[in-house]
Design brief:
29% of the residues lie in helices and 23% in strands. Strands 1, 2, 3, 4, 6 and 7 form a 6-stranded antiparallel sheet that branches. Strands 18-21-22-15-23-24 form a 6-stranded mixed sheet, with helices on both faces. By secondary structure, it is an alpha+beta fold. The protein has 14 helices and 31 strands. The protein starts with a helix and ends with a strand. Bound molecules: adenosine-5'-diphosphate and magnesium ion. Magnesium ion (MG) binds next to helix 6.
């Protein structure tokens, strides 16, 4: 600490470049402060710092991080505690640009594996950012001292030692995370694809907020008696809620009665949520993929022939490519690409689907005969999919009763509460005089795997590597942008950051070699992450990797599939 103070006093009021001398490691007694990277000017991305406390001083009991669920939860908890105390201790902006700001990437409503904190048997380490203060480009030494020697030790003291944290709250955070992973793991043996605990709060505060609607305004979830299931979690014990069985499930009901909100909760049930989220016991199988229409997207040699054939002018749909997909072709490609990554549960909402992809009623079948209609609607494939691959589906469908014929379970939402109407739906279908015919007799063809060609994935622009993630839905990749706005199960900007570096990592490791399939490549990367941690995807060796949160394989594939320069071969 003395050394740090000395350097700061010698560089005070000098030009910003002199800050570079701060790079290094400083012993603060209870912890070491590492200044990994010093920003070039007060507007550049902030400097990267780490605080490390040895376990001899931090004293987190091994059982708090003894398996991957607990480790992720504890690291998440410490990151959030660090953020909470920095909000209290850090005085904030002092000078030009980002001067005086301290920040950490601590996540939203989900508990994700991330790189902002590492806990192991030896130490606890928090990785964070600081804007080293200056007026213009003149170093403000006093402010720098105040941040590094005043505020940071206080933040560390309040958040990185077991004794300074609220033990009850910390244990709850860990237990709830472990429960969620456990329940997700037993869904399949219970023949379920999703589970929603009674009492869950599904609606969110607003269209731009992911926090729960206040309990006074929300109708708490309650399972209909028929689907009520009780599961046993390691910490919460017996919990009762709605179990959605495998197969084909329909969510119907009037507009504004909570259909999309229910589907959204199911879609997000692939992630663990923090206590008080309202959805902490909404659990969905890992293999669930939201499927939507995505007009204008690029498609590279995807075999969409199970859904689309006989296009005008004989355009091939076995190796279908386009730089400008329609609603229905994009939705078909989204399904096939998800199946390529072994999706086990497809989620569709009429709000975000192409109507002609979902339904074609009996009158339209008479008007436009099959040989004039390239699209085989999803309704005629959904059973096929379940029989051949065991892939379940759930659809929100308030506008057509056609799916009654093939649904195993029909859930009706009425004033935000579900009931089961499967039998009534079947009766109504029987009473219908003029029924539609099923448009296919063949089974679903097997899924063609594809091999990305590394030469088509170019991170350079004008001789310089240019790859940068922006927010939740954009990656600048070389000369092109990858648009992820239709990839709805990305929930954290740090996942997008990780996805862009995973693509670079796969190139660097030569996993993309023109022989491996897309799924092989992604499997290899995730195997490395499992073995060496999420830090591994970073190309920086002498500074902390910054802000990554673990994405799923589906979303990594989705990003690669949306790269507009991508070229692939179909695997034999
Ligand atoms: P639908 O898809 O049936 O048209 P939505 O799911 O979009 O309906 O919900 C309509 C509105 O009702 C949204 O503003 C949503 O936040 C709200 N909402 C949904 N579920 C609940 C609930 N359980 N309690 C209170 N409000 C809810
Ligand atoms: Mg809706």
């Amino acid at each position: 600490m003395k050394t740090l103070k000395k350097i700061i006093s010698t560089i005070d009021h000098k030009g910003y470049k002199a800050y570079k001398q701060l790079k290094g490691r400083y012993d603060f007694g209870d912890f070491t402060l590492h200044i990994d990277h010093v920003q070039g000017d007060p507007f550049a991305s902030p400097s990267r710092l780490r605080a490390r406390v040895m376990q001899t001083k931090a004293v987190f009991a091994p059982e708090l991080f003894s398996n991957s669920s607990r480790k992720t939860a504890l690291e998440d908890y410490i990151s959030r505690a660090f953020e909470k105390s920095l909000k209290k201790e850090c005085r904030g902006n002092r000078g030009t640009g980002k001067s005086g700001l301290i920040s950490i990437d601590s996540g939203g409503q989900e508990i994700l594996q991330r790189t902002s904190c590492v806990v192991n048997f030896d130490f606890v380490e928090v990785r964070f950012y600081a804007g080293l203060p200056a007026r213009g480009r003149t170093i403000l030494g006093n402010y720098c001292l105040e941040m590094l020697a005043g505020e940071i030790p206080k933040i560390v003291a309040a958040s990185m030692f077991c004794r300074s944290l609220d033990e009850k709250e910390m244990k709850k955070h860990i237990q709830i995370c472990e429960d969620q992973d456990y329940l997700r793991g037993i869904l399949e043996e219970n023949n379920l694809v999703s589970f929603i605990k009674n009492g869950s709060i599904l609606p969110r505060r607003s269209g731009i907020s992911d926090s729960p609607l206040p309990e006074s305004e929300a109708v708490a979830f309650k399972s209909p008696p028929r689907l009520e299931t009780t599961l046993k979690a390691p910490h919460a014990g017996k919990i009762t809620g709605m179990g959605i069985p495998r197969g084909i499930t329909l969510i119907i009901g009037g507009g504004f009665h909570g259909k999309t909100t229910l589907l959204k909760a199911i879609e997000r049930g692939i992630y663990n949520h923090i206590p008080s989220d309202g959805r902490e016991y909404c659990i969905t199988v890992d293999s669930a993929v939201k499927i939507r229409a995505e007009e204008g997207r690029n498609i590279q040699k995807v075999n969409i022939s199970p859904f689309i054939s006989n296009l005008p002018f004989g355009k091939d749909t076995v190796k279908f490519f386009t730089a400008n997909a329609s609603g229905s072709t994009s939705q078909a490609a989204n399904i096939i690409e998800a199946l390529e990554c072994r999706a086990g549960f497809l989620l569709l909402d009429e709000d975000t689907s192409a109507t002609n992809f979902l339904i074609r009623d009996e009158i339209m079948q008479k008007m436009v005969p099959k040989d004039k209609e390239p699209i085989t609607p999803f309704i005629d494939r959904v059973k096929n999919l379940y029989r051949k691959f065991g892939t379940s589906s759930i659809l929100v469908m308030g506008g057509s009763g056609d799916y009654f014929e093939i649904a195993d379970t029909v859930i009706m939402m009425d004033c935000y509460l579900p009931s089961i109407v499967t039998e009534k739906a079947a009766e109504l279908i029987k009473e219908r005089k003029d029924t539609r015919y099923t448009e296919v007799s063949d089974s679903f063809s097997s899924i063609t795997r594809r091999i990305p060609l590394p030469s088509s994935i170019n991170p350079f622009r004008g001789g310089r590597k240019k790859v940068k993630s922006r927010g939740l839905d954009n990656i600048i990749f070389g000369s092109y942008n990858i648009d992820l706005s239709a990839v709805e199960q990305i929930v954290d900007p740090s996942q997008v950051n990780a996805i862009s570096d995973i693509i670079l990592y796969a190139l660097r490791k030569k996993y993309m070699d023109g022989k491996n399939t897309l799924t092989d490549i992604i499997d290899m990367v995730f195997e490395d992450i499992g073995k060496y941690g999420l830090d591994i995807i970073s190309d920086f060796k002498d500074q902390h990797p910054g802000s990554y949160a673990l994405p799923r394989k589906f979303e990594v594939a989705a990003a690669i599939n949306r790269l507009r320069t991508l070229k692939v071969l179909q695997a034999p």
